[in-house]
Design a protein that fits this description.
607 residues; alpha+beta; Beta-Lactamase; 5 domains; five-stranded antiparallel beta sheet; 17 helices; 20% strand
């Protein structure tokens, strides 16, 4: 019986163009209709006298066959033409030359015509359904045949009912070999058991069931990964038809996914590494848009800007008012370097513009160079000090040589002058000349002693000594000079106040300062020497005069060697004072206003 069905199934598709010529021309269809009408009319004539129901027996086949061959309207046309021609023109009691109108005949023909309408409609509907089903089956079959996925359909008992060519290519099996067999008949036991468990899981879940597994492909003996989905197939009323299976080779996709996953991990690690570098680099890095809004800033940049977690503003001009000018310079497209001073700090900026028009951004690298500026200033000061030390060393060597070479002859000259003064037979005026010569030799000797003291001062040996005794001894030697300049000297020092100093050297310091003050008052004035215990382990000594004062342009240079504003000065007095003060770890300061006098302040270690 099944063989008969297969034969019929194979013949019917070949008969369709003949049985359903709906795509033929209108003339072809009309010819079929006329032939069928003629055949029906001949049959009608052979039947005999008219009886009720006889037209149905003749024109039903004509209408049905016309609908089959020409479609719905062809069948209706065959019915109408045949019925009218046979009934009203050729069948008694009618004739072609006489016409008798009979209501029963008209009613019968109307009934027959309605029957033919139903029959032709049904045939046309069945044909349309057949065509739609055939087209859908053809599309589905084409899809199944061309799709690269493995597709199969099995009965509830596990027997293969259908499979596509992809299965034949994958397993190297022919379709006729697969149909009608089970998985156990086609595959090894381990593979068959895996397929059976997947089918049972789909049936138990009554829905799609997914699984992944590695399989050896028979075509090239390559190990591939299959993603399999099995789904129970049911009719509209819920009857189980079988199990549909779809398998897809996802080996390449899995390989790509693994590569993407590995690359993603690498990118995340690289991103974290770059983010750590960006956040912890010693330079501040900012990204700013064309409106001046801070888009990105690392920790150092936020510190340089003074931004905190509570800072609401993200506009760079609010932190750096000079930013618009810097941005305009960077719009030229080249890297711009700019030094900026903000809140007492010096920043070195490197600004680069990126993007175009509305996408413009500025990348800023900011470095705090405040320490570098400070170190540069300190180095300049150190260079000046080194230069001064080298100059002082040179001058000291020169002073040592001059003092040595001149000192001995002066001593001899003074000894001769003193000896001559004791002679009894000296001419008139010679004794006075000898005294003046001795005086000039003493003055030159004093100069050489100052010169020598500056060049190579004796090492200090500080001991506790009473400051008032030292000051009174010093005033004894300069009292005559003070009187000659009309200078009044006031001394205010406690008798018990002691300092830690070399007595001769501190006496020289006070002497040099007092002499300078007296010379600064050519028209007379007042000199005050006041000492008291200052806060801390120091004694404060103030030597203040009411003289001419020191100009602001001269004041920074008064301790320089050989610098003097007097025509008769050597310029070494205050330089010697500076060296002695430094040797005792003391400190000297001076305050002066032209026309209002000068005050030297010494902070000397207390005993």
């Amino acid at each position: 019986m099944s063989l008969i069905y297969e034969r019929i199934g194979s013949i019917l598709p070949r008969m369709e163009p003949i049985l359903f010529p709906v795509h033929r021309s209108a003339g072809y269809k009309l010819g079929i209709v006329l032939v069928l009408v003629a055949i029906a009319f001949g049959v009608r004539r052979l039947i005999g006298p008219p009886e009720l129901g006889v037209p149905f027996l003749t024109f039903f086949p004509a209408a049905a066959i016309s609908a089959v061959f020409g479609g719905f309207w062809a069948g209706m046309l065959a019915t109408a033409l045949g019925s009218m021609a046979a009934t009203y023109f050729f069948i008694p009691p009618y004739s072609i030359y006489s016409f008798e109108f009979r209501w029963d005949t008209v009613f019968g023909n109307i009934v027959y015509l309605l029957d033919e309408v139903v029959v032709c409609s049904a045939i046309a509907a069945l044909h349309r359904f057949y065509r739609i089903t055939k087209d859908q089956n053809a599309e589905l079959n084409t899809l199944i045949q061309t799709i690269p996925d493995l597709i199969w359909l099995k009965s509830p008992d596990g027997v293969y009912l259908e499979c596509n060519p992809a299965i034949e290519r994958f397993y190297g099996l022919q379709r006729d070999t697969v149909i009608g067999r089970t998985s156990r008949d086609l595959f090894p036991n381990s593979v068959a058991e895996s397929i059976h468990r997947l089918d049972q899981a789909a049936l138990s879940a009554d829905g799609p069931c997914n699984n992944e597994g590695w399989v050896i492909r028979a075509s090239d003996a390559r190990r591939v990964l299959l993603e399999t989905t099995t789904t129970p197939m049911r009719t509209a009323d819920g009857k189980l038809i079988g199990v549909l299976g779809i398998a897809r080779d996802i080996t390449e996709r899995r390989h790509l996914e693994d590569q993407v996953r590995a690359r993603t991990v690498e990118l995340e690690q690289e991103r974290a590494f770059l983010s750590a570098i960006f956040e912890h680099t010693g330079d501040g890095i900012l990204a700013v848009d064309c409106r001046g809004c801070i888009v990105l800033a690392n920790h150092e940049a936020r510190r340089l800007l003074g931004m905190t977690a509570k800072s609401e503003s993200r506009l760079l001009p609010e932190f750096w008012p000079e930013w618009p000018l810097i941005a305009s310079r960077a719009d030229s497209g080249r890297e711009v370097r700019h030094d900026l001073e903000v809140a007492g700090r010096f920043l070195a900026l490197s600004v680069t513009r990126t993007g175009e028009l509305k996408e413009t951004r500025y990348v800023i690298v900011a470095r705090d160079v405040s320490d570098e500026h400070r170190i540069a200033d300190e180095r300049r000061d150190l260079d000046r000090q080194m230069f001064q030390m080298e100059r002082m060393t040179t001058l000291g060597e020169l002073a040592m040589g001059v003092a040595h070479e001149i000192g001995n002859p002066l001593a001899g000259m003074k000894a001769v002058a003193q000896s001559l003064q004791y002679e009894d037979d000296l001419p008139v005026g010679v004794s006075e000349a000898l005294r003046r010569l001795e005086s000039e030799i003493d003055r030159l000797g004093d100069f050489l002693r100052s010169f020598h003291g500056f060049a190579a001062p004796q090492s200090a040996h500080p001991v506790p000594c009473r400051l008032r005794d030292i000051a009174e001894d010093m005033l004894f030697w300069i009292r005559k000079e003070a009187v000659s300049h009309n200078v009044a000297i006031g001394l205010t020092i406690d008798e018990n106040l002691s300092v830690l100093a070399d007595q001769n050297q501190i006496k020289q310091v006070l002497l040099n300062l007092v002499v300078n003050s007296i010379h600064a008052m050519p028209h007379g004035g007042t000199l005050r020497i006041v000492a008291n215990l200052d806060a801390g382990p120091h004694v404060r000594i103030d030597i203040a005069d009411t003289g001419l004062g020191i100009g602001a342009d001269v004041l920074p240079n008064i301790f320089e060697p050989f610098f003097t504003t007097r025509t008769t000065g050597s310029g070494l007095g205050l330089a010697v004072v500076k060296k002695i003060v430094g040797a005792h770890n003391a400190h000297i300061d001076v305050q002066s206003q032209p026309g209002h006098g000068t005050c030297f302040t010494l902070l000397w270690p207390a005993a």
